[in-house]
Design brief:
This protein has about 170 residues and is α+β, with helices and mostly antiparallel strands. It is built from five helices and seven strands; from the N terminus they run ααβββββββααα. It has helices at about 10-15, 20-25, 105-115, 140-150, 155-170, and strands spanning about 35-40, 45-50, 55-60, 65-70, 75-80, 85-95, 95-105.
């Protein structure tokens, strides 16, 4: 439950969001690890935490602290809409979606990466599905699209190799 030096916040961010961090502490379960913290707004300013078990949004007012949680089994997808100065993160759930505004672009990308690459949680069911039957990642789908375009002659070999290198470096 390391909330003092959370990933995603520097020392100033931890100081500026100390009340939100205090609201986040009791919302965490014993042994739950924070993978990334994101400063976001959803009606109120707060911290969105990606943990190894779920997503937690903590806000703190003058008199009341509040935390909302969503398990990863309820999360269908994450969408990032980038603007000039900031970004909007949309968490798509089975029953709708939640929009978080006022996020920094670089931090949103790191948050989404942390969620997608998170280790399986202790309560996650084991997955015995063969690799060929598992849903493909976005990167795999983009690679297949590049392969199809190259085979059909839509792109030159140099364009194809450049695109594959760019995809692999992500």
């Amino acid at each position: 439950m390391d909330v003092e030096a959370p990933p995603g916040l520097d020392r100033f961010g931890a100081f500026a969001n100390r009340r939100e961090l205090d609201a986040l502490r009791p919302a965490l379960q014993p042994g739950e690890r924070i993978l990334y913290l994101l400063e976001a707004e959803q009606g109120k300013r707060g911290l969105l935490a990606a943990t190894d078990r779920r997503l937690v949004f903590a806000t703190a007012g003058l008199l009341r602290r509040k935390a909302m949680t969503w398990g990863y089994t309820d999360v269908v997808g994450l969408k990032v809409l980038k603007a000039v100065d900031d970004a909007t993160l949309t968490i798509q759930l089975r029953g709708g979606e939640i929009v978080f505004d006022g996020c920094r672009k670089r931090e949103v990308e790191a948050f989404v990466k942390a969620v997608r690459e998170r280790p399986p949680g202790p309560d996650d069911p084991l997955d015995f599905t063969p690799a060929e039957k598992r849903p493909k990642t976005e990167k795999q789908l983009r690679r297949e699209r590049l392969d199809r375009m190259f085979r059909k002659g839509s792109m030159t070999k140099a364009e194809y190799e450049r695109s594959v290198r760019a995809l692999d470096s992500e």
